[in-house]
Amino acid sequence: MPELPEVETIRGKLAPHLQGRRIAAFEVPDARWCEPAAPGELADALAGRRIERVGRRGKYFDFELAGEVHLVMHLRMTGNLLYVPPGDDAERPYVRVRIALDDGATVLFTDPRRFGTGLVLLGDAARDAYFDARLGVEPLGPDFTPAALRELARGRRAPVKAFLLSQERIAGVGNIYADEALFRARIHPLRPVGTLRAAQIEALHGAVVESLQAGIDARGASIDDFRHPDGARGSFQDRFLVHRREGEPCPRCGATVVKLRAAGRGTYVCPRCQRRPRGA
Is the bond leading into 36 cis (omega within 30 degrees of zero)? Predict the structure, then answer.
């Protein structure tokens, strides 16, 4: 699933092409994408509106349109947003949504597994309420501090990896960046988050920020379906420290990276750098 760095990469590449443009037509060939709303309802709300800003909150896109209308989209497991310049008539597979712009360009939401979703929210307050009900602190924003992380973790018995994956705590961190952050912080993913000491909280905070920023700098990780709006691949998969490196030497100490299950996900750790807690 695309995580914060992948979504931010797409946002950054789309914004210069979309901001200031008007939506000439909005088509939803696959009605499942916007259920329970009907495709025609979205088309009526969006057609003719100016795109004022392409934003992001966690793993969600927020297309801010004139009149405080928000087109909110989530890629889920295999979704992508592709930018098709004017004059390019080539067919793309798995098109779920087609957004025609007033300059002849098109934005396509493609999704082979059809898990991606979209909806229209009317008013900034409705947008804020929608995100507040689902998402916690933005990890690259000013509110994500060691003190805030310590308060979120206080008294919680959940394994630290499950805590990191909980979007209502920290928005945007998924399996890849949780593994990378925990390795950087030298914390085992099964350690109860509420037992972390102050120094470990400090290290984890820095590691989350550093891992996410490294992913953005590499333009995301293209392991399976993720692509840039122009179809290019990200390169963060070539820079993984432990994720998907089972059987390879730890880049820090040389011990063999192992794979285990944590929070129901395949998880990669260095058994020497990330000591397993007793009883886990």
Answer: yes
In terms of pLDDT, which residue wins out, 1 or 231?
231
For the segment 77-110, what is each residue's pLDDT rounded down to a tens digit?
A: 999 999 999 999 889 999 999 999 999 999 999 9
**Whether residue 137 has pLDDT greater than 80:** yes
| 84 burial type by CB count under 10 A (0-12 exposed, 13-18 middle, 19+ buried) | buried
* Domains, in order of start, for the chain: 4-132 (3.20.190.10), 146-269 (1.10.8.50)
The single residue of 3, 6, 8, 64 carrying the catalytic annotation is 3
2 part of the active site: yes
Per the annotation, the verdict on 8 as an active-site residue is no
Which position among 2, 5, 189, 192 bears the catalytic label? 2
**At residue 148, does pLDDT exceed 70?**
yes
Q: Is 13 a residue of the active site?
A: no
Among 59, 96, 184, 191, the active-site one is: 59
**Whether 265 is catalytic:** yes
- Cα distances from 133 to residues 130, 166, 176, 263, in angstroms, run 5, 13, 24, 22
Long-range contacts of 152-158 (CB under 8 A, 24+ apart): 153/193, 153/194, 153/196, 153/201, 154/194, 155/194, 156/192, 156/193, 156/194, 157/192, 157/193, 157/194, 158/192, 158/193, 158/194
User: In the structure encoding, which two tokens stand for residue 105, read together?
Assistant: 């360009």
Which of these is catalytic: 134, 244, 252, 265?
265
